[in-house]
Amino acid sequence: MLSSNSGFQRFSQAALSRSRFLRLAAGALLPFVGLRLSAAGAPKPELAQNTGAPGTKDAAAPGRMGAILVGQFGPVKIHSYLSPADGLQVNTQMIEGPNAVVIFDGQLLLTYADEVASYVQTLGKPVDRIILSHAHTDHWSGLQVLTERFPDARVFALDGIADQLHARGQARLDSFRPIYGDRIATKVTAPTEIIAEGVQRIDGITYDFRRFVDAESDLQLAALLPEQKVLMAFDLVFSPNEHAFTLVDHFDHWVIILESLKALQGYDTITIGHDTPVHRSAIDSTMTYVKRAKAIHAASADAKTYSESLKAAFPDLQHAEWVDLSAKLLYAAPR
Ligand SMILES: [Zn+2]
């Protein structure tokens, strides 16, 4: 996401409630566990605070607005920061290896990027690099904060992403400013390094970087962690509990990509761009959603009809306001 400000006023400004967080944590896919939002209240047995390892005291926890889930995969930890709803529940993934941390994506709102940075600092390891998954504003606005807080970290993305940010990034930020004021970035922070496709090792962890075009976005990175059997799908896969963003008319190709992800064997855990990690069955539910959205798009002459029909088709999914936003952008483009 995102290129317009439509509908944003309706996003809650409130931080995640405790009950919401407990639901998130309880529903989180093992082996992820939740870190409590606040020091207030007794910890639930299924939740873990990040105090188990030396040097990992989470100083920011008492006032933290977002939620953090931590998955342990042998020597590798995946920390997932999830923003509150007004930040579009966007994730920043932090891959902690033996010596360093690799950060994926930078949040929409600076306040949440700042929480990410404070959390990373509690891990006590340098940030090796920051990798941007795609050029939608909710994933990169907060890079402004992360690059200030970690000035030695290089910022990577697929070839073409930086060009997209240079071409359209400032206009995107300006469109958000009336809603978010100084919570949105003041300047574009574009990646300066190109991430190579294919297998590479960073801090002893094997990544298999994949390039996808014409899905939820025009250009999208995904990463396989073959040793951990984790697929980092970003906005290629959405939660089965929520609407997906359908901003551009790439429905058919998105389904083809989802089929290719489904063909990957053994990747049961998928981290996604919005909300907590999901089981691989979310590939199927995303495919069902995209196919239905395509049919509704074909049958709908305007954004309002598309939005109403898609909501009616999936009445139980959360974030109906995301559909309004998708419809506005989908129908703003030439058909
Ligand atoms: Zn997104």
Task: Give a short summary of the structure.
The protein has helices at residues 18-27, 110-122, 137-140, 143-149, 161-180, 251-262, 281-299, 303-313, 320-332, and strands spanning 32-35, 67-73, 76-82, 91-96, 101-104, 127-131, 154-157, 193-194, 198-202, 205-213, 219-225, 230-234, 269-272, 278-279.
* SSE pattern, N- to C-terminal: HEEEEEHEHHEHEEEEEHEEHHH
First-to-last CA distance: 20 Å
What helical percentage do the residues reach?
25-40%
Biggest sheet strand line-up: 1-2-3-4-5-6-7-8
Instruction: Give the total of beta strands.
Output: 14
| CA-atom Rg in angstroms | 19 Å
The protein's oligomeric status is single chain
Characterization of this structure:
Helix 2 (110-122) packs parallel to helix 4 (143-149), helix 7 packs antiparallel against helix 8 (303-313) and helix 8 (303-313) runs antiparallel to helix 9. This protein starts with 17 loop residues before the first helix and ends with a helix. The chain has helices spanning 18-27, 110-122, 137-140, 143-149, 161-180, 251-262, 281-299, 303-313, 320-332; strands at 32-35, 67-73, 76-82, 91-96, 101-104, 127-131, 154-157, 193-194, 198-202, 205-213, 219-225, 230-234, 269-272, 278-279. Helices cover 33% and strands 21% of the residues. The structure holds zinc ion (ZN).
